[in-house]
Amino acid sequence: MTSSVPAPAPLGAPDAPGDPAGPARRSRFGLLPRILLAIVLGVLLGLVMPEAIARVFTTFNGIFSSFLGFLIPLIIVGLVTPAIAELGRGAGKMLAATTGIAYLSTILAGGFALTVALLVLPRMLDGVSVGSLDNPEDSAIAPYFEIGIPPVLDVMTALVLSFCLGIGLTVVRPGALQESFVQLRDIVVKTIEAALIPLLPIYIFGMFLGLTMNGQIWIVIGTFLAVIVLVFTMTILVLLAQYGVAGLATGQNPLRMLARMAPAYATALGTSSSAATIPVTLECTKRNGVPAAIADFVVPLCATIHLAGSTLKITTFSVAIMIITGMDLNLPVLIGFVFMLGVVMIAAPGVPGGAIMAAAGILSSMLGFGEAAVGLMIASYIAIDSFGTATNVTGDGAIAAVMGRLSRGRVSGDLSADETPHVQGV
């Protein structure tokens, strides 16, 4: 039986005739090349730019980060609540299924990383000893001024509120409240379109400029180059496995599905933030044929609870640091650490460095990391945070595809019509 979901359009495909959001509204220079250009310029200009000018971009990044932190809960409420409501009856089961799949994906990635790390790293790091490093955030170029924009809700409160309201709206008669959340979604999409997407490349440029001028990237890469290569290889294998499952579930070519997620991967590579990448991840996910009602529900949710890439990276670097500092590799403790890490990642904010900050507590309590080891872990993680984040958000698209397949016949909402506005400029 053929699906009623329209065939996904490839990235960069011409607009359909009569498309109101046609070439006149779309950028001729897509988001992916803009992000790549921002990364290259950030690294190159970081070698020569005077600090006084660099502080302008640091100031912008601070303001943008505050604005982003303010918007993240609104993005979650504005997208997740109406998405759950539009799923209709069965939304609660879909929520439980999504959470279960996200947790399973996270701990499988952590288990895979632990297995490879225990087999490979003892030989790879034989005789290696590294001193402690400062947290790269502590040596960041100071902004000229800061503007704090406190969020109305924290991320977890926004998620719980969205679940309660969304599921509640599925059991009452549609009315003004549901229409209000649909309008809120439109406002959120337009804010993303007008503010976040155009400013993302500047934000990414400022991040790479600061990291290059601080020298933290080169220190950590020089110290852990072999571990970084191993982590990157494992993230690719994890993504191939995730999209292999998604391809089997949807009947699509997994490599093509993965290719359509390239803008989301590149955006996360630059922002190191799952939350900042939500708009791009949503658009790429819909281009893989995932119904808007499912994508708008799964992607913002998974941006907070699905951190397979971060778990993989934290697990690998934890074992590496235990080896180079002479700590005992206790297998039962490490296995328990991976399972607990999957739980802790649910509470991690989707901002740069959020995962390692959330994990710092169990690094100390479960693995016995002292202050120096935690500092080394933070320095190692944050300097290459983007690779784990890129794996996280790209994997969100695979989970959304699987949930799109599982949702057929299990929810009462319309999963064939894509009435949600697409984010332009992606």
UniProtKB/TrEMBL annotation:
It is a multi-pass membrane protein. It comes from the Bacteria. The keyword Iron does not apply. Gene3D superfamilies: Sodium:dicarboxylate symporter. Pfam families: SDF (PF00375). Its main location: membrane. Residues 10-22 have a biased composition (Low complexity). Residues 1-22 are annotated as: Disordered. It is found in: Membrane. InterPro entries: Na-dicarboxylate_symporter, Na:dicarbo_symporter_sf. The keyword Cell cycle does not apply. This is Dicarboxylate/amino acid:cation symporter. It comes from Brachybacterium rhamnosum.
